[in-house]
Amino acid sequence: MEATLFTFPSSKPPSSQTLTLTLKSHFKNPLLARPTSHFPTLHHKPPTSIRAAISRTKKEETVDTVKQQLQDCHLLAGIKYKGFTVKQFQELRQVLPDSTKLIVAKNTLVFKAIEGTKWEPLKPCMKGMNAWLFVHSEEIPAAIKPFRSFQKEKKLENDFSGAVFEGKFYAPEEFKALESLPTRAEIYATLLGSLKGPATAVVATLQAPARDLVLLLKAYVKKLEENGGQ
């Protein structure tokens, strides 16, 4: 360690007090020194393992949410989400009926939830950015119509990327078939009218496409149950 020699210009030696102050000003205590810009304040981040665990938990929660929405779901459709503003997305949610749920989730997580189920035919939609429409009602046209009206009002180019209904995949160009499905009231009228009419009308109803016939029979059975079997 290099020593420092102190010299005093006058022949009179300094007092003990002066000498003490001089030594204190020369030998600064490093423990009392203020931090400089060379030592910035550190902001500690959670360890990588913790961040990975949080991310994994959020993904699992998303998959569980999708699975819950699939319960009693009659139609699951993808809507091209790219270009939507937050405001538009909120407005769309407000115009949808209570029987529907609109969720934004990654394709990989949605597919993980539907893999191995009757909804797996939705796989062709698993590209790009999608919002997912879960319809918990048999009134399919009534669930789709609000989006069509919103799409026209806002002049959006966003369209359906596809849908699955009763295990069958519908491409965007096939949505007209879903939008033209008969309402419950129309099903009742058709079925009851054929039962009260001549035998030819009943035969015509029975010869209708199997999908329409199933809808008719389901509606008729439910109507009977509501009326106590009358």
From TrEMBL:
One of its GO terms (cellular component) is ribosome. Its main location: plastid. GO terms for molecular function: rRNA binding. It holds the Pfam family Ribosomal_L10. Signal peptide: none annotated. Gene3D superfamilies: 3.30.70.1730, 6.10.250.290. InterPro entries: Ribosomal_uL10 (IPR001790), Ribosomal_uL10-like_sf (IPR043141), Ribosomal_uL10_bac (IPR022973), Ribosomal_uL10_bac_type (IPR047865). It comes from the Eukaryota. It is found in: Plastid, Chloroplast. Keywords: Chloroplast, Plastid, Ribonucleoprotein, Ribosomal protein, RNA-binding, rRNA-binding, Transit peptide. NCBIfam families: PRK00099.1-1. Belongs to the universal ribosomal protein uL10 family. This is Large ribosomal subunit protein uL10c. It comes from Davidia involucrata (Dove tree).
